[in-house]
Specification:
- The structure is a single chain.
- This protein has 210 residues and is an alpha/beta fold.
- It has eleven helices and seven strands.
- It has a single domain, classed as 3-Layer(aba) Sandwich (Rossmann fold), CATH 3.40.50.1000.
- It is globular and about 50 Å long.
Amino acid sequence: MKKLIVFDFDSTLCDVETIDEIAKEINIKKQIESITTEAMNGRLSFFESLIKRVSLLKGIPFSRVREICHSLPLTNGAKECVKELKSRDYTVVVFSGGFRVATNHYAKILGLDADFSNMLSHGGANDELDGLCGGEMMFDTSKGIMIQKLQSILNIGIENTVAIGDGANDLSMFEYSKTKIAFCAKPILRENATNIIEKRDLMEVCEIIK
């Protein structure tokens, strides 16, 4: 039987918010965090929040962004959880409203089947961020749209789909998943979950999915 499990990346597979770590480089973490909080609690559209936050990163060398994104801490149990799920014949995918420079790197490390996220635009003489981004995960509805596409391609139904996340932009993929896991999540996601994990250990997922 084919089975699909989709993880959010920031604050789920990864133990931090990628954009916050990049923001530290130019001392604007608190400003970025305040916008992130508004979005994750559903008080600001994800698209609007993403555009605002990325615009503030303009001028950071992309080489430095890559270094930061390749040194993020994974959440406790991430490697073990993915390995166990793969042994149970799950297709394991990550969706992220964050950035490909991070998700693609960790998808390879974790052995994920695919990653879908956004790309930071950069260039110029010094190859710096230009404050723009684009990609597959720009909107509140993006994760729901993509999970339906994967279900169609892989011929996997909602009853064999699991989604795991922590914020408001994960709601759309919950709609197309039978098992909806809120991982150390914001209230808006907890209210729509079938299962809630409070401990920051992803091996708890394997206890829910038998």
